[in-house]
Description:
Layout: H1 14-78, H2 80-88, H3 91-100, E1 104-111, H4 119-122, H5 124-134, E2 141-146, E3 149-159, E4 165-173, H6 179-183, E5 190-198, E6 201-212, E7 222-225, E8 230-236, H7 245-291, H8 302-318, E9 383-386, H9 393-409, E10 414-419, H10 425-438, E11 442-448, H11 451-460, E12 466-469, E13 478-485, E14 488-489, H12 493-503, E15 514-516, H13 520-530, E16 538-542, H14 549-558, E17 562-566, H15 588-596, E18 601-605, E19 612-615, E20 621-622, H16 624-635, E21 643-647, H17 654-660, E22 664-668, H18 672-682, E23 686-688, E24 694-696, H19 706-720, H20 724-729, E25 735-736, E26 740-743, H21 748-757, H22 760-763, E27 767-769, E28 774-778, E29 781-787, E30 793-800, H23 803-820
Parallel strand pairs: 10-11, 10-12, 11-15, 16-17, 16-18, 21-22, 21-23
Antiparallel strand pairs: 1-4, 2-3, 3-4, 5-6, 5-8, 7-8, 9-13, 12-13, 13-14, 18-19, 19-20, 23-24, 25-30, 26-30, 27-28, 28-29, 29-30
Pathway: Nucleotide-sugar biosynthesis; GDP-alpha-D-mannose biosynthesis; alpha-D-mannose 1-phosphate from D-fructose 6-phosphate: step 2/2
Family: Belongs to the phosphohexose mutase family.
Organism: Thalassolituus hydrocarboniclasticus
Amino acid sequence: MRTKARPPKRTIVFYSRLTIWLALLFIAGGLSFQSIQVNLITQSDVDHAFADAMAEQMAHSLSTRLQDTRRLQTAASRHPMTVRALEENDPAWKATLRQFLSGVSSLQLIRREDAMGLQSSHGYAVQELVSRTLSGADMRLEAVQRNGSLHFYWASPIRNEQNQIAGVLLAEYGSGWLSQFQSGTSQTMGQIVVNQFVDNDRSRGLEIFRIGQEVKRAGTIVTKPINDYWYLTYIPSDERPQLELMPLATPWIIVLIATFVGLFILVGMQKRDILRNQLKLLTYVRNLSRKGIDEQPVFTLALFHDLAVSMQHLINTVRPDVTDNGKANGNSRERQDIALEQPKKITTVSNAKRQALPELMVEEVEQEHPIEVAQGIFRAYDIRGIVGQDLTEDTCYWIGRALGAEVQERGFSKISLAWDGRESSPQLAAQLQRGLNDSGCHVIRLGAQPTGLLYFATHELDTPCGVVVTGSHNPSEFNGLKIVIDQHTLAQEELMALYHRIMRRDLPQGSGQSEERELAEAYLQRIEGDVQLARSMKIVIDAGNGIAGPLAEKLMAMIGLEAECLFCDVDGRFPNHHPDPSQPKNLQALQDAVKTHNADLGLAFDGDGDRVALIDNNGKIIWPDRLLMLLVDDILPRNPGRDVIYDVKSSRHLASLISRHGGRPTMWKTGHSLMKRKMQELNAVVGGEFSGHFYIQDRWYGFDDGLYTAARLLEIISQRNLPADQLFAALPEDVSTPEITIDCDDVRKFSLLQELSADSELTAGARVFSTDGLRIEFAEGWGLIRPSNTTPKLTLRFAGNNAEAIARIQQRMKQALTRHAPELKVPF
C-alpha cells in the first residue's frame, strides 16, 4: 500500500527569509543600542562642557573682582599720602581711602611696632595675615568667620622711601563686597559654592557663600581654583541643555527602512529566479525520462545545475539502454562492485638497506678564561667603583659587550657614548666602546660632555640609547657608568641583568662601527631658545672643575648674563674641592664670591653637570627642596592636577605647597634612575631630589640636567623682580641640617635599617615612612636615615621648627644607633 507523503511547508526561500529577519533584528537592536549609547555619551560630553564653561566663566568673573580689589588696595598702599598718614596717624586720609576703596567697611594703617596683639580684636587669622605681610609675603585675601558672620580682609605692605616695609594697610570688606558678583549670577542654572581651604585640607574649609537653587539631581560637578586657597564649585541644575534622541536616531532609522526595502526587493528577485530555474529543471527531466532527449538548459543558479546533472546520472543508471538521441545500444553494461577502501601499500625495508644514523661528533674545547667582574659595582641606579680596583678597563670592555647585546635585543642598533673630565674616563670609555663594537653595536661618540647632553642625545639623535662614563660627584678615584636604553635610565634589576649576562657569557659577537658627532651647540641653543629672562643679573658660577664648566660659561653668555666663573676649567683631579654641591664645605668659595662681587646669586654644578645648587644674594644656601618649591610655584599653575615627585630627604612643607597649587604630591625613593622611572609612571610635570637633581617635564624632556634647571631658575627669578633672598623668604622653611654621612659596611647598613624600623623607642609617637630608608615625622620636625646606594655609608638628615627640635630628634636617633650599632661614629 502506497502512502502519500505530506508536502513540506518550508520552501527553498525559508532559510533566506529567516536569515534576513535575523539580520534585520540584529541591525535594529544594534542601532537602538548604539543610539542610546551615543546619546548618553554625547549628553555626558555636553554636560561636562557646559558645566566646565559655566564654572570657568564664573571663576573668571570672581577672580576679576578679586584682582580689581587687589589693584586698588595696592595702589592705595603705595600712595605717598598713605606713608605720611601712617607716620602721622592722619584720620582724614583714611577717610579718603575708604571712599577710594569700594566696599570697605573699616580701614586701618598699622605701623610695624603696633602690629602685635591684633588677635584679641580680629582673631588669629588676621594677626597671621598682618605678620606675613610685614615679613614680605605676597598680598592675599583672608576670609574670617567671627561672631557668626563673614569678614574679608586684605593686607598690603606700606613701604617707606627706603623701600622698606614700614606698616600694613589692613582693609576689612563687608558681606556686600561680593554682592555685585552674586547678583550677576544666574539663579536658575544651578548652584555656586565658594570655599576657602586651609593648606588644601577640605576638612578645614570655610564656605564663603552659596547661591542658586538647590539641585535635586546634580549633573557634572566642576571645581575651579580662584587662587591658591579659594575654590569655586559649580553644580548644574536639571535645566541644563538636554540632547534630543530623535535627531541622533533619524539617520539610522532612514538607513534601517532602506535596508528593509532593499532586502524585500532582493527576496522577491530570488523567488522569481528560483521559480524560473525550477520550471527549466522539470522540463529537462521530463524530456530526458520520456523522450531520451539530453539537452541540458542553461541555469542561472548552481543548485539547479547540480540537480540536473544528478538526475541525468540517475536516469541513465536506471535505464542503461537509453543513449544519446534515444537510440538503443545492444551491449548491456555490467555493474561493477568497487570496494570503498583502497588497499594499503606497505613498503618494507630490509635490514641490509637500513643505514645507521651518523654518530655525533663531540669536540673537546678547553675551558675559556674566566671573566672577572666585581658584582658590587652594580648599584641601585648606576655602575660605580674605584678605578683600578673594582672598575678596570677590562671590566668596562665586558660591560660594553653585555650592554651592546642588551641594546640589540631591545631592537636598536646604535648607542651614544660620552664621558666626563676625570683622568680615567677617556681610557674607560675607549674600552667600553670596543666592547660595544665587538657586540655588533654601532657607537656615536659625543666626546667629553655633561650627562645632561648625553640624555639630550637620546631624544634628539637617531637612537634612544646612551651611556656616559662618569663618577658624578664622587672623589677623583671613583668612576662609573650611567646607562639609558629607549630613553629609560637603567636601575636595580636591569643593571644586575648586565652582570648576570656577563657571568653566563651571553655575549654575542659582531662588528659594529663608530662615528663622531658634535652636539654641544645644538644642546645649548635648545636651552637658550626655551628660556626668556626678564632682566639682567650678575651671577657667579662654580663648576668645581667638573665637565659642565665650559658649557655653563658659554650658556650664561648666550642668555645675556654677566657671570663670574670659579673653577670652570675641567680638571679631573678636582684640586679646589670635591664636585659635590650638596656639602656646604664645597660651597664656601661660591658664597664668598657672591658677597665679594655683590652678585644676585650663585650657581654650583656637580662633576657631571646633572645637579645644581643655588646661593642667594646674601650668600645663604638655598637647599634644593626649596628650589623645587619655586619651580612648583611657576609650573603647576599652567599644569593643574599634575603630579609632583620629591624624594624622602625633602622638606615636609612640599606636600601642602603642591596641594595648594592644585598638584598631587608624591614622596619617592632617592636616586636619579628611580625618580625618572616614577616621573614616567605618573606622567609627573616636575620633580626634584634634595641632592640637587631636578626633573622638568614642562617644556623639557623630564631628565635631570643641571644646566637646563639653572636656566629655568634664572628665568623665574628674573621675572619676579625681587632679590633672591626676599623671593625665597616667602617660601616655607624649616631649620634643617645638610646631609650627614656615617661610614657603614655595605651589608651592615641594610640590616641595621631593619633593626631600627622595629625599634619602638625610636618610632614612638611618630609617623613612619619606609619608602626609602626610615623617615620619622613628629609635630615639631622629622629625621631620616637611609643606606646610601652609591657608597658604604648611611645618610641622615634632620629638619624642624627650630634647632631645639632638631636636637631632640637627633638625640633619639643617636640613642637608637648606640643600642643597635655602638661601633658607628655618630657625628652629632
